[in-house]
What we know:
By secondary structure, the protein is α/β, with parallel strands linked by helices. Helices cover 47% and strands 11% of the residues. It has three domains: 252 residues, 2-enoyl-CoA Hydratase, Chain A, domain 1; 177 residues, 3-Layer(aba) Sandwich (Rossmann fold), CATH 3.40.50.720; 217 residues, CATH 1.10.1040.50.
Amino acid sequence: MSVVATRHGATLLLTMENGAVNALSVANGHVRSILEAFEAGLQDATCSVIVIAGAGSFFCCGADITEFARRNIAVDLRDLVNRIEASPKPVIMAIHGAALGGGLELALAGHYRVAHRAARLGLPEVSLGLVPGAGGTQRLPRLIGAGPALEIMLSGKPIQAARAKTLGLVDKVVDGDVVAAALDFGGDAALPARRTGELPPPNDLANAVTAARGSLRTTLGNAPQTIVDCVENITSDLCAGLAYEAGVFAALLLSEASGALRHAFLGERQAARIPGLPRDLPLRPIEAVGVIGGGTMGTGIAIALLNAGLTVTMVELREDALARAQNIIGKSLARDVEKRRISADEADARLARFTGATAYEALGPVDLVIEAVFEEMAVKTAVLQAVETVVRPDAILASNTSTLDLDRIADAVADPSRVVGLHFFSPANIMRLLEVVRGAKTAPDVLATAMALGKRLGKVAVVSGVCDGFIGNRMFEEYLRQVWFLLEEGALPQQIDTALERWGFAMGPCRTMDLVGQDIGWAIRQRRATEQPDRPYSGVIDRICALGRFGQKTGKGIYLYADGRLPSPDPEIEALILDYSAEIGLTRRAISDEEIVERCLLALINEGLRIVGEGIAYRPVDVDMVFLHGYGFARERGGPLFQADRIGAPELARRIAALAAGRNGWAWAPAPLIATMADKDAAFSTLNA
């Protein structure tokens, strides 16, 4: 049984015990166990009050999300919630840790709520593309008012117990033992059964709904507007409101957005698990970190480390560059104070953990060194060779390379087992993605320690094997290859960017490369021309780069930047593109937005599946996490390989074969994994296990 029943005089205490977060699971019988234990209490004539609490660190963090892929478990939760609320005996919820989602809906079914001061309460379903599905949209507004309830549901963010008490969501807040407090609260046998669902519709209903509709988020699928619809449907007839909520919940559960958002939520946790490594593998302690290089990347990495409570020693051989980096770090911390993200004392403490130096000898005591120097093999290997002579033998050596062969870098030092790739994305203190690159000789504990560091930094860390560009940049290269081909075939930059942004990318590819710096892509293409002469790009983008138009930093790129920031179409570039098409003898044609999205998306999918098939990525979901957190792929679209499953392997094989038969068909050689899964008519997600 996952519910423990104990008697305290006339009060029955039911303690839920189901895993680390006390998830409400139907598959393992947990929900049924709660209901059966509760029914037994109702039938016991000697029991006058029932208290429900959670074991471990949480009251209940909601429904088991993994079960939504198999069935609508909200149906079972509704039965439990409705039965508890209908109890003739008073029911008290003892809330500690967190009551989230279905956990808060369970708590709302109670007649009274006692919460620990540190408890958090919320309904985060909107972040999964859903509405609360077990009565939350109908009971919470009745209890605290429509305005506060909509704020909680639409933000998805939990509130602290003190605010919950002010709103009327909880009846008592305590600092000590919340279960003891709930038992004491229920000691009065005359305590009436006060049912939330019997409260009248909130007085602020109309005004709150109008205000909410005026500020709805456009992301997260239809969930935000549907939450407002549910609240608008509150009437004196609770059953009608619950039925409406149940209907829209079921529809949203089947939507692309909800499936994608749940995939993203679970994927972040899956990506943290390294196949073949025991979870109890001892990690190397990381408290002091050395950063080599005071440029944009090194400075961002240093800020991320300081923000995570680590001590940082930055080595920059040029004193002026070191001074500039220290100044940027100080300004970043001051900005956080100004925006009230941290206190002035905390900013001072972080700055006190930073030391600048101009000699490698300063790195002697550190646990980890991260080199963030120029992206050139000779430079990086020389730096790590110099560093390994001054650091401890057990210190980890990490390279921030974005494309170079980590195994070659590792072989340049005496002990390659302590070398790992830590590919931060710029700006490193903001971007959530961290590609952790495992070399052929990287020690298991070094890899596991790097992943743990990523978690400490608040990153979504994803393991990649060694290949040119790793997961993200290797795929993005094929995406850009199609973008440049589309330019020469008939599309213009603004159409490409607009089509992809409307579909769900945070920023179109032409704008992105202008922001990153067109010279970076130009350098890569020059290297590729020698290494991969059989995989050419359109020359149109190099014509633009040859004019010295490298993007925002030069005021001109594919677009013009009159104010240094906002892009505007440039007739000169549009003429250049048309002239290039004529020069290579290509008759331009009308290209639809649908073709733009199709080709760019399929390029990502094909290369992503090639990467999975080669073992560079452990799982398809790892590829998706890279693109969700590093490349602006819309969360409600799930990622390239989530989209691959929406297309289906057989249809994907057909579409790529059609592209392979067309112009530049060599770029569409299908990933072998596509044929493998098409033959089985199997989903790529089955490879995530």
